């Protein structure tokens, strides 16, 4: 695949900061697709940045300016303490036919997957989440999808012939979907019918208040995720003006950066997207600056990945067995002595053959089982696997 056929080059001047020497800023290490330097081989790179302006954005020029602003702030940040190879591929071409861009994005992501490169996608619309999902379907694998959003956008408008990405994924094309998680929805934005529908489908939705009080419990969810989409509207307006659905409530900037770092640390995660940035409503480029820092913390998390999986990787794990009256099989937990991470086994009985799967969990899940209650994570996974 010639990626130059899919991406427009970046054309901008970066005003560097005075706080760091040029050689200590990201601009000195990142590879950039520009008019002077076309994309050559991306093999051997760890991460790739993709800018995407949706064909439905309504103001392509403003959205492209926004992507440029994000890059300006990111390039000026301090370089990382460990070596990482990042390629900024530029902005995805829109194509001629309505579906060209979606197909192009899907094919590019498939190509990056084949080279073990993680795409970091920045864009103005969550519509691009669906072609990202379709890339995984090319590999015929079950997907764990996480959406960080104040709303749960499982919507359909038949009059305007519009279906949200989540509608297409969860309702229409869910054969490849194993788990869907919403992280941080706000109750006043979400119909109880949608929350109930997700629960009936054995998916998960966590309110903002719960997540803010239990931020560390997000890490096990991210640890099992394949794809994470972060919507800017999950952040409160005073911390991120540049969004299409602003609200006075939401995550603080520091919290969203912590979530981005957890996302980067996930050894399974292979795609990260940041959506719904509105340059038109951004004040002093504050949101562009925040998105740049979100990307920085994602990369920092990536550099601190630790691959652990008790059934496959060597390491020091403690095994805990819990018997629960309502469960025929005992619950088997594992704890890493190195990182204090927890897992629990889930048996899958198919064709008279039992196979054990591991899902990430927390110490609280272990305590819950010890008190005789079945953790919801285990119960829903067991129902899906059997």
Structural summary, described in words:
With about 375 residues, this protein is an alpha/beta fold. The protein folds into 2 domains: about 5-305, Arginase, Chain A, CATH 3.40.800.10; about 315-385, no CATH class. Helix content is about 30%, strand content about 20%. The strands form 3 sheets. Strands 1, 2, 3, 4, 5, 6, 9, 10, 11 and 12 form a 10-stranded mixed beta sheet that branches. Strand 13 (about 315-320) and strand 14 (about 330-335) form a beta hairpin. Helix 1 crosses helix 9 and helix 2 (about 100-115) packs across helix 3. It is globular, with a radius of gyration of 21 Å. The mean pLDDT is about 90.
Structural class: alpha/beta
Total domains, how many? 2
Total strand count, please? Answer: 16
- Going by CATH, the homologous superfamily of the largest domain would be Ureohydrolase domain
Q: Using the coordinates above, name the CATH class of the largest domain.
A: Alpha Beta
What are the low-pLDDT stretches, counting only 5+ consecutive residues below 50?
none
- Termini separation (Å)? 40 Å
Coarse morphology = globular
Radius of gyration, in angstroms, nearest whole number = 21 Å
Give the proportion of residues in helices.
25-40%
CATH architecture of the largest domain: 3-Layer(aba) Sandwich
The run of helices and strands is EEEHEHEHEEEHEHEHHEHEHEEEEHH
Percent strand equals 15-25%
Mean pLDDT: 91
If you consult CATH, what is the topology of the largest domain? Arginase, Chain A
Could you give a short account of the major beta sheet?
Answer: 10 strands, mixed
DSSP helical segment count: 11
